[in-house]
Design the sequence.
């Protein structure tokens, strides 16, 4: 098959907010003898991230390729996404989502002159991805590098969030010759945009500041980033993860020293109006709740939301938010304690049902990566949220196993599908039984130097 790499130009026209309905096909898509899909099955789309000058950074763009279930499950079947795949719109690593049934891919381009553009593709197998509707540009609201996920509402809605660069505010103290400007607080402007993923258009947006308490703000604390919104059980609130920052009040510059971390935070807004923001605080976790490039909060069958922490001084925790939209501090789940490690860091995770989740993580003492200084070996654990236990999944781990940018898990009945491959090396799809924990090797993934796989959808 020939590659389908889109060429992006700085002068390319940008389609506006109205979400044009004219159909746009993918770039000379080819079926290349892709067999039709049986009605009882679904496509599985593998995503790979291309390096630019640094192995493993994925900043050269993203390619996708789709195969049928029988091929995904066959360890003798080879998938060469980097040579045969379709490159989705994105200057850097694309931010991908898929419909539950795998028939549709959604993407918001990340970075550059096309950053913030939302696209929808029908999955036809192989490298055949047919663009549906227009390209919706949300960059004027959420910037060129928005964070977004789909809401679990039947593939109807996506939500993108951002915070503008924080501004340091001062106030005048004293009068006359004794007057001086001193530090007051730091805030950015938060923006939420919801997308109608069926009609391919913006459905709502709202912007606001998010103040913390007067005491916290006087010490320099502020919300640096928003990410991974999730809809509550009642469908009337969005819970949005946060990444906290701190200004040094003495200098007005970002505080780069170690400082006391506040309890983990989330922002709650009314839905669908996106109004009335409030901040809730956990006294169990002290890390950020923003995740990175995938879902970080999930609504469980018990009506509660489970949310992971990152950069937690006591290692990552999984927190619980109850149906009153408040943190339930009676629920304590330390990944360090569950796995017997120190300073665990949840890189990506997925709730799969019946209290079970799969967690990609690293920790103190993990092997140092060979491809990029500062990166560490990643692992995968099967987690029971009810018993608050965790077990490492039996996989062929290597120092260059890197899940930090991982985005896509497929949950198909009782089976969970993940891509497992070190940076720049071949790997496999693995099928996990979420009832028994059994692990089965699936199709082989053909890699290229410096590239890595970021999920299956």
Sequence:
């Amino acid at each position: 098959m020939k590659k389908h790499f889109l060429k992006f130009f700085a002068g390319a026209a940008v389609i506006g907010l109205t979400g044009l309905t004219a159909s746009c096909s993918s770039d000379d898509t080819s079926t290349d003898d892709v067999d039709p899909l049986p009605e009882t099955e679904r496509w599985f789309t593998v995503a790979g991230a291309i390096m630019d000058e640094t192995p493993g950074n994925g900043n050269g763009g993203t390619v996708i390729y789709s195969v049928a279930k029988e091929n995904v499950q066959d360890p003798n079947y080879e998938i060469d996404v980097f040579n045969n795949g379709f490159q989705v719109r994105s200057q850097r690593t694309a931010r991908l989502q898929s419909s539950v049934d795998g028939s549709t891919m959604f993407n918001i381009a990340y970075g550059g002159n096309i950053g913030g553009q939302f696209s929808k593709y029908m999955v036809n197998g192989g490298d055949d991805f047919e663009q549906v509707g227009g390209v919706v540009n949300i960059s004027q609201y959420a910037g060129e590098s928005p964070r977004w996920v789909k809401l679990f509402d039947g593939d109807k809605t996506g939500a993108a969030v951002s915070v503008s660069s924080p501004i340091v505010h001062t106030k005048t103290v004293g009068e006359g010759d004794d007057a001086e400007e001193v530090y007051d607080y730091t805030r950015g402007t938060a923006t939420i945009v919801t997308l109608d993923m069926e009609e391919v258009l913006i459905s709502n947006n709202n912007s606001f500041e998010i103040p913390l308490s007067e005491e916290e703000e006087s010490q320099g604390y502020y919300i640096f980033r928003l990410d991974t919104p999730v809809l509550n059980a009642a469908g009337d609130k969005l819970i949005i993860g946060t990444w906290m920052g701190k200004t040094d009040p003495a200098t007005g510059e970002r505080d780069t020293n170690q400082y006391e971390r506040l309890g983990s935070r989330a922002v709650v807004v009314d839905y669908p109006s996106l109004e009335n923001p409030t901040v809730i605080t956990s006294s169990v976790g002290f890390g950020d709740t923003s995740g990175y490039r995938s879902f970080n909060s999930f609504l469980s069958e018990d009506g509660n939301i489970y949310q992971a922490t990152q950069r937690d001084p006591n290692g990552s925790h999984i927190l619980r938010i109850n149906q009153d939209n408040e943190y339930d501090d009676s629920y304590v789940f330390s990944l360090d304690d569950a796995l017997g490690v120190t300073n665990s860091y949840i890189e990506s995770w997925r709730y799969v049902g019946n209290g079970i989740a799969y967690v990609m993580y690293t920790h103190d003492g993990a092997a140092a990566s060979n491809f990029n200084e500062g990166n560490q070996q990643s692992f995968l654990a099967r987690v029971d949220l009810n018993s608050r236990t965790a077990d490492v999944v039996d996989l062929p781990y290597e120092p260059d196993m890197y899940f930090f940018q991982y985005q896509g898990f497929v949950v198909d009945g009782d089976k969970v599908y993940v891509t497992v491959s070190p940076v720049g090396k071949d790997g496999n799809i693995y099928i996990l039984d979420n009832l028994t924990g059994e692990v089965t090797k699936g199709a082989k993934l053909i890699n290229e130097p410096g590239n890595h796989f970021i999920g299956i959808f």
In short: The radius of gyration is 22 Å. The first strand starts at residue 43 and ends at 49.
